[in-house]
Structure formats: C-alpha cells, structure tokens
Design goal:
Layout: E1 6-10, H1 14-26, E2 30-34, H2 45-48, E3 58-61, E4 70-73, H3 75-86, H4 99-128, H5 133-155, H6 168-174, H7 177-182, H8 191-201, H9 204-211, H10 222-255
Parallel strand pairs: 1-2
Antiparallel strand pairs: 1-3, 3-4
Helix pairs in contact: 1-3, 1-6, 1-9, 4-5, 4-6, 5-8
Length: about 260
C-alpha cells in the first residue's frame, strides 16, 4: 500500500469531528481544508466536484485503491474507508469478518441512519419551534436512542460500545453528544453514557482531533450557540429552496 496522501475537508461540527478524530487516532499524516460553511464555501463548484450534495466532511485520498485520487463523502463511509484501508493494526476497528467488525457496522449504520437524523432534527426544532410537535417527536425519539445506548454501555465490561477497545462506532456516537446537550438532553440521566463520553473526551488523540485542525474559536454561551444555529438553519434552508423551486417550475413547464 502506498503512503497516504489525505486531505480532510471539514468544519467543527459533529460530522467534521468524526474525520479529524479518526485521523488522529490512526496517527495518519493529513492536510486539512477548514470549510467556511456560513459563507457557503461548500456550495462552490470545486467542492461539489468532491461532494456532490455539498455535504461535509469529505476526504480526498490522492493514492486511492487503484493508485488514482478518490473522493469519499458521508461521515460513515469515510470512517469505513479509513478503517479498511489504513487501520491494519485495528486501532479503531476489528479484523474483517470478525463478530466485532459486524457489530461495529451495526452501530455505525444505526447512528448514521437513525440516531444522527433524529438528534439533528431534535436540535433544529428545539431551536426553531421548541414547543411544537416536531420538537417533541424528535426529542422523544432521541431519548429512546439514548436509553438503548445506556443499556449497551452499562453491560459493557470494556467501557466501549463494541469489543475491548475504541472503534469507529464510539467515534460516530461521541461527536453527537454536544448536539444532544444543546437540544436539552440531560446526560446525568444516562450515567453509563456520561462516563463513556468523559473517557473518550480524555483521550489525547480525541483532544487533538477536536482542536488541531481548526482555527481557535472564542467560548460562547449555550444561548449564543443556539442563536447561531437558528441563523444557520435559516441560511441553509434558503440556499436549498430556490433550486428546488426552480426545478419544480421547470417540471411544471415541461408538463404543459
């Protein structure tokens, strides 16, 4: 396998942190491009060529599996790529075909397909319409997921979600803990989750992944964070809406 030549396109969000933490845990050399999401840098053509739906994070490996550059997007796909291609010592994974490897895939897909959307919507509606039906629905569904995670970690003899060491399953759940707290979830009601989060946060590689690739940011209050998120949701919605309206108008014209 050739030497890695990796560029991480990230921002300091839960999904962006998954990539930087995984790279630090693996001890891989990498370059970073910190995206300015609020200015819409992720909407520019050069980035859309890497990640077609403007999704962040994205990873470019100049020395791809066939020796040619490859772009990987979606955080779960990126974590699997790094584990399969650059983790021969199973630092954040388990041997292919093992019980633990399949269990990691279970939890990775569960988070990406189920927990992550519910937590994201719980925060969004907590910010935009905290007393509405959607806010209550997604918060309750997030709480259900936390109860499941609490049960798993309470039974774990290692303190990790799968097996006897940190894996990409832990990384993908860990970075969304801040989102949960911002949406009003009290981690003290989930003692095993709280203790697990504190252990992960104390790891030197995790601390590097949370700080090293990013420009320093001033500490702000929770209220200020929520106001920032509200402004972000409005901006992102406005970016996407015109294109959808244009497509609908074009389709209507074609149907005449």
């Amino acid at each position: 396998m050739s030497s890695p030549d990796l560029t991480a396109y990230i921002a300091k969000t839960p999904n962006g942190l998954k990539l930087s933490i995984a790279l630090e845990e693996l001890g891989l050399p990498y370059k970073t491009h910190e995206l300015d999401l609020f200015s819409g840098e992720q909407k520019q053509d050069w980035f859309l060529a890497i990640s077609p739906f403007s999704l962040m994070p994205a990873l470019v490996d100049t020395n791809g599996p066939d020796g040619k550059p490859i772009s990987i997007f979606e955080s779960g796909s990126i974590l699997q790529y790094l584990a399969e291609r650059y983790d021969p010592e199973n630092k954040i994974s388990y041997p292919a075909g093992s019980r633990e490897a399949y269990e990691v895939t279970n939890w990775l897909f569960f988070h990406n397909a189920t927990m992550s959307p519910k937590q994201s919507y719980a925060l969004q509606f907590h910010v935009v319409e905290p007393e509405g039906y959607a806010a209550r629905k997604f918060r309750n569904e997030s709480l259900e997921g936390f109860s499941i995670l609490e049960s798993v970690l309470a039974k774990s003899t290692s303190g990790f979600i799968v097996g006897d060491h940190l894996s990409i399953a832990d990384i993908t759940f860990y970075t969304y803990m801040q989102t949960a707290m911002m949406s009003g979830i009290d981690l003290t009601k989930y003692p095993s989750v709280k203790a697990w989060r504190e252990r992960i946060a104390a790891r030197p590689a995790v601390q590097r992944g949370e700080t090293k690739p990013f420009k320093p940011m001033p500490e702000i209050s929770m209220e200020a964070r929520l106001q920032f998120m509200k402004a972000w949701y409005e901006k992102d919605m406005n970016w996407r809406a015109p294109k959808e309206e244009e497509k609908a108008a074009e389709q209507e014209e074609q149907n005449k």
